[in-house]
Amino acid sequence: MKKGKKLYEGKAKIIYASPQKNLVIQHFKDDATAFNNQKKAKIDGKGILNNRISEYILSNLNQVGIKNHLIKRINMREQLVKAVNIFPIEFIVRNIAAGSLCKNLGIEEGTTLERPLIEYCLKNDDLGDPMISREHILTFNWLNESTLDLITGECKRINDFLQGLFRGVGIKLVDFKVEFGKTSNDEVILADEISPDTCRLWDEKTEKKLDKDIFRKDLGNLIEGYQEVARRLNILHQQPVLKPISFPKPKEVKIKKK
Ligand code: TMP
């Protein structure tokens, strides 16, 4: 598919125009950032893994009726997606305390929350994506009440589905961030990505981190963590070790002399 002009470049993805009306191409980069862009690196292969993992998750969500922007993956790094106007809010869902929840409220990492906690953050890098309340969203008209309720409901459904999906492969879904937007038909749908860049995923038994915290906290090889997630979801098939083929030595052919 022929890419059109670049429409938007974010920290981990680029959006290009596509030849099809109301559709765009979402390209996954290898760039990793943390702490509002203060820590940066290029991690070979991260974009490929996130493209595959997000495709898998969004197509599964689609199958259970959670409308989203994914049309199809078109190559190793790109997806054809519906064009949306992204709402300026990040929706965070937490099941287990980690990250900023622990830092801001002094809650011990790993504490299981009695019920999923939904938080809202304003998407504004200059302000450091501050946490906002439902009242802020309504007062400043970032979303109307019915859209906010619809998205909050979708966040809970996404959480239920993803918790089950990951539990089935021995992974705890600690928390995640999602973004929503409006299509040209005024439909509100899930957009962006769901990948180990945007979730916290811990091995069920060892609590080993398999997500972007590996990069944020310098815990080792990020690609190995993301590959482990992909492997467990059966996206990344284990490459069989091919035995070298041994050919028998050609037999000597004796040519009889006349
Ligand atoms: P936090 O604990 O740092 O607030 O992050 C909560 C979840 O949201 C975690 O899964 C990481 C994800 N997240 C993003 O995807 N992008 C962001 O910019 C931030 C701050 C968090």
Polypeptide structure, described:
The chain has helices spanning 46-63, 99-105, 134-139, 145-167, 213-216, 222-232, and strands spanning 6-9, 13-17, 23-28, 31-34, 39-42, 70-73, 78-82, 85-86, 89-96, 112-122, 131-132, 171-182, 188-191, 199-203. α1 (46-63) runs parallel beside α6. A hairpin with a 5-residue loop joins β2 and β3. The mean pLDDT is 95. It has one domain: D-amino Acid Aminotransferase, Chain A, domain 1, CATH 3.30.470.20. The protein contains six helices and 14 strands. The strands form three sheets. Strands 8, 9, 10, 11, 12, 13 and 14 form a seven-stranded antiparallel sheet that branches. The protein has a five-stranded antiparallel sheet with strand order 1-2-3-7-6. A two-stranded antiparallel sheet has the order 4-5. The protein starts with 5 loop residues before the first strand and ends in a 26-residue tail after the last helix. Residues 92, 98-101, 129, 175-177, 198-200 line the site of thymidine-5'-phosphate. Thymidine-5'-phosphate is lined by residues 92, 98-101, 129, 175-177, 198-200.
What's the quick description here?
This protein has a single domain, classed as 2-Layer Sandwich (D-amino Acid Aminotransferase, Chain A, domain 1), CATH 3.30.470.20. 27% of the residues lie in helices and 29% in strands. It is built from 6 helices and 14 strands.
